[in-house]
Known about the structure:
Elements: E1 2-3, E2 12-16, H1 21-30, E3 36-38, H2 50-60, E4 64-67, H3 75-80, H4 82-102, E5 107-111, H5 140-160, E6 164-169, E7 171-173, H6 186-200, E8 204-208, E9 214-219, H7 220-233, E10 234-235, E11 240-242, E12 247-249, H8 250-261, E13 266-270, H9 285-290, H10 298-314
The protein binds guanosine-5'-diphosphate (GDP).
Guanosine-5'-diphosphate binds next to helix 6 and strand 8.
Amino acid sequence: MTTENFSLAGRRVYVAGHRGMAGSAICRRLEREGCTLLTATRAELDLRRQAETEAWMRANRPEAVFVASATVGGIIANSTRPAEFLYDNLAIEANIVNAAREVGVAKLLFLGASCMYPREAAQPVAEDALLTGLVEPTNEWYALAKIAGLKLCQAYRRQYGCDFITVVPNNLFGLNDRFDPTHGHVVAAMIMKFHTAKTEGREAVELWGTGSPLREFLYSEDMADACVFLMRTYSGEAPVNVGSGIEITIRQLAETIARTVGYEGRLAFDASKPDGIPRKLLDCTRIHDLGWRSSTSLEAGMAEAYRWYLDNVVSAA
Ligand code: GDP
């Protein structure tokens, strides 16, 4: 494992995907680094377009890049929109990585995803489990695109000596999540469902699957702190897992969110909806050894996520 001291102070730093949950958290965290933040909206720059991406990178000359831009979604979005999940993500990462090399970006951090690992991997999943088996089918398209992104970083490091690294966070939740009951990830979808049920006085909330799958949840601001930490201290071909160690069943998650929201009705699990992978806990020995650990409890993070939803989604409606 290679460590280094890459300072972001005074550098031009581009966060691709700054409006999403991961990118916006990285932007907030970068405020403490004394760097010049560069961002572009989708209207200004469509990262799926190679010529646009190259032109923007040449005009703006970032020295460091965080690739937090991706077409993302929950378990149903992943299985029903395979073309978007594969094409958009392959195009975004290929365009940014290649343009970053062309303009001489000193360091790039690519955000992978825990669904890159094989469904049958031994738990907790260490980084070297990658490509030792088949991925979970409900995430296949997204997972394959993210594996290709990691491989691009490795290939550009080997062939061109680019210092491009990959970070693999586990299931994220927090601020700026996509609050959409159909296409969102589980935490945002449940916050919405419980809030609506409480407001409308509903006696039950319908949730997907059996409630028994296990998931590890990482708070957005902790993920951003880990990314900045790794950008500054880690250089290497191997990806680095980022988890919280907080592993619970989907039913326990639902109970936690119901408490946060103040909903006292019944949980109705619909087992005809997919459960997805039964368990997905990351082995975080590598990042712990480098000197980083997550610090936010599930309850504290959930309270912040709900507050963000009330302030930004409910009040804006
Ligand atoms: P995954 O971690 O890649 O499977 O993605 P998700 O965040 O979409 O789903 C996590 C788990 O939560 C799965 O087992 C889902 O079946 C379960 N789940 C329960 N209710 C919901 C819901 O309302 N929305 C979503 N997205 N997942 C739900």
